[in-house]
Amino acid sequence: MGIKFEMDGNLAIVTFDNPPLNLLGNSAFAGFEEGMELAVKNKARALLTLATGEHFCGGAHVTENFLNKDGNDGRRMLNRSYLLTQRFEKLPFPTVVAVRGMCLGGGLELAQIHDIIWAGESAQFGQVEARIGTATLLGGGPRLVQRIGLTRAKEMVFSASPYPAKTMLEWGLINRILPDSEVEAKARSYAKQLSEGPTIAHAVNKAIVNASAASGLSAADDMTIALAPATFDTNDMKSAVNRVQEKGIESLFKGMTFSGT
């Protein structure tokens, strides 16, 4: 399906494997969905998305997805696609993506449903759908508003042009830039660290932050009251608090390990 999946301990790794452009067609989308399902099945505590070759994703496979298709076809496609993207955003563990080269159209939309985006110096990001006369079909435009603000989101979707990683870091779309030769290895190390962290706390924090972005502070406060108390009952919180009692607050920054329970 053009997708590879592996587990590295508690870390699920999904790799687009259809170079040179890793275009998003039916098989790639189905493979990405299968990778998500396997991560859940294998009880992953974090997920990392990578891509083979020089480019993360050049966007949709235009002819496969759109040639001879009408509005009804488009509606069916979007109904199926949003089931995946919205579920992915709600996964109860951190998700990280490492991007090199082109990250355009649907590729940028998939990158945006991850919690953390790391980029190589060669990365170019763009919502280029207007170049084929369509909209940001997988929610890229609205998610740009959350990440970089209304005015810059409108600029990106209207211009339908690629922007360099440096600009995207300044605008807040991505979290970090690294040399191309290092970005995947360092993203893997970071994601591996997340996969060994307090998984239940990560899930609660992710839900709270996402609620704030989607619905505002009051919704996030309500979710905090509803979800955060459960962390008091976890082995991770109990062991960390006991460690502070026994060894002092400094011990929290010296090799803490978490069971994820």
UniProtKB/TrEMBL annotation:
GO terms for biological process: fatty acid beta-oxidation. SUPFAM superfamilies: ClpP/crotonase. It holds the Pfam family ECH_1. GO terms for molecular function: isomerase activity. It comes from the Bacteria. Keywords: Isomerase. This is Enoyl-CoA hydratase/isomerase family protein. It comes from Noviherbaspirillum saxi.
